[in-house]
Amino acid sequence: MRAVFLDQDGTIGGTGGGVHPEDFSMYDFAPTAIKSLNEMGVKVFLFTNQTRVGRGFFTEEELLVGFKRMDDELANHSVFLDGIYYCPHKPDDGCECQKPNIGLLLKAKEMHNLKLEECYVVGDTGGSDMLAADRAGAKKVLVKTGWGVGSLTTYRDQWQEVEPDYIAADLVDAVNWILNDLKE
């Protein structure tokens, strides 16, 4: 089973940095891009670090309300996510789920019988999203939205040993590349 894992902040919406769930909004093009994957029968998962829960900026309950609001907005466009995987821990908690660790990907793999080497990770952060994809053996797609440009320039040293399989302008470009790659 193949799947696409989408980072939240900076990939499907937001600015790249963690924001309060009440303040998060998707990019206008995100539902259309996700719908293209839904229509092709590709599983789509949100996978996101939400360290602001662990650091006390907002509660896990507030985060879940934000995810529900996003699900409802997607449903208004006849779009859906097959699952949401998130890490609520502080950066120094040493958990296995916080990207660039691959605990979230392994959990989805087990729950959905995935072959991670046939999956795609789309994110805006090289030091977490691209490293997690590389460690899991998944294909790596970096978007230039959010912190993507900074990941390719200012912060490239944090993940210099990893090359993305594709650098996309945004989620629409990333999904188009993935759909073409799946046809090969």
The average pLDDT is 95
Radius of gyration using CA atoms only: 15 Å
Strand order of the largest sheet: 3-2-1-4-5-6
Shape: globular
End-to-end CA span: 16 Å
* Helical segment count: 7
Q: List how many beta strands DSSP finds.
A: 6
Q: Structural class, judged by helices and strands?
A: alpha/beta
Order of helices and strands: EHEHHEHEHEHEH
Q: List segments where confidence is low: pLDDT < 50 over at least 5 consecutive residues.
A: none
Considering DSSP H and I runs of 4 or more, what fraction of the residues is helical? 25-40%
- Beta percentage is 15-25%
Main sheet summary: 6 strands, parallel
In short:
This protein is an alpha/beta fold and 184 residues long. 38% of the residues lie in helices and 15% in strands. Strands 3-2-1-4-5-6 form a six-stranded parallel sheet, with helices on both faces.
Notable features of this structure?
184 residues, alpha/beta, 6-stranded parallel β-sheet, 7 helices
